[in-house]
TrEMBL record:
<dbReference type="InterPro" id="IPR036249">
    <property type="entry name" value="Thioredoxin-like_sf"/>
</dbReference>
<dbReference type="GO" id="GO:0005737">
    <property type="term" value="C:cytoplasm"/>
</dbReference>
<keyword id="KW-0813">Transport</keyword>
<protein>
    <recommendedName>
        <fullName>Glutaredoxin domain-containing protein</fullName>
    </recommendedName>
</protein>
<dbReference type="Pfam" id="PF00462">
    <property type="entry name" value="Glutaredoxin"/>
</dbReference>
<dbReference type="GO" id="GO:0015038">
    <property type="term" value="F:glutathione disulfide oxidoreductase activity"/>
</dbReference>
<dbReference type="InterPro" id="IPR002109">
    <property type="entry name" value="Glutaredoxin"/>
</dbReference>
<dbReference type="GO" id="GO:0034599">
    <property type="term" value="P:cellular response to oxidative stress"/>
</dbReference>
<keyword id="KW-0676">Redox-active center</keyword>
<keyword id="KW-0732">Signal</keyword>
<keyword id="KW-0249">Electron transport</keyword>
<dbReference type="InterPro" id="IPR014025">
    <property type="entry name" value="Glutaredoxin_subgr"/>
</dbReference>
<dbReference type="InterPro" id="IPR011767">
    <property type="entry name" value="GLR_AS"/>
</dbReference>
<comment type="similarity">
    <text>Belongs to the glutaredoxin family. CPYC subfamily.</text>
</comment>
<feature type="signal peptide">
    <location>
        <begin position="1"/>
        <end position="22"/>
    </location>
</feature>
<keyword id="KW-1015">Disulfide bond</keyword>
<feature type="domain" description="Glutaredoxin">
    <location>
        <begin position="39"/>
        <end position="101"/>
    </location>
</feature>
Length: 128
């Protein structure tokens, strides 16, 4: 009798896990990426502006979480979520500690005016 209960419990557990995986949405993936990582960049692997944004963080000795939209099946859906979230569907879109920095030019400007260091909790001299 207990073997049947175990089998039923395992079956129910697998059904719940499968259901949870099926209900994951691009919106949940975007929110998770933004709030689970110190730095998140939504990017396309071939985009020169994305490369510049990633280079800014590399020069700061930071390792951002990068979502390469062109390499994902749901990349277009994620880009639509970003449009709803930040009003832009261009890449890159950079987030630091949950704060939307913006695109490549915005990130470069935030670096120049010290805002990026502030968001990262660094002194400007730490990365120079």
């Amino acid at each position: 009798m207990s073997l049947i209960r175990i089998a039923v419990s395992v079956f129910i557990l697998l059904a719940v896990v499968e259901s949870a995986a099926a209900t994951r949405s691009p919106s949940a993936d975007v929110q998770n990426a933004i709030y689970s990582n110190r730095i998140t960049i939504f990017s396309k692997s071939y985009c020169p502006y994305c490369m510049r944004a990633k280079r800014i963080f590399r020069d700061l000795k930071e390792n951002p979480y990068v979502v390469e939209l062109d390499l994902r099946e749901d990349g277009q859906e994620i880009q639509s979520v970003l449009l709803d979230l930040v009003g832009r569907n261009t890449v890159p879109q950079v987030f630091v500690n949950g704060h939307h920095v913006g695109g490549s030019d915005d990130t470069k400007e935030a670096l120049s005016n010290g805002q990026l260091h502030k968001l990262l909790g660094k002194n400007q001299t730490e990365s120079e």
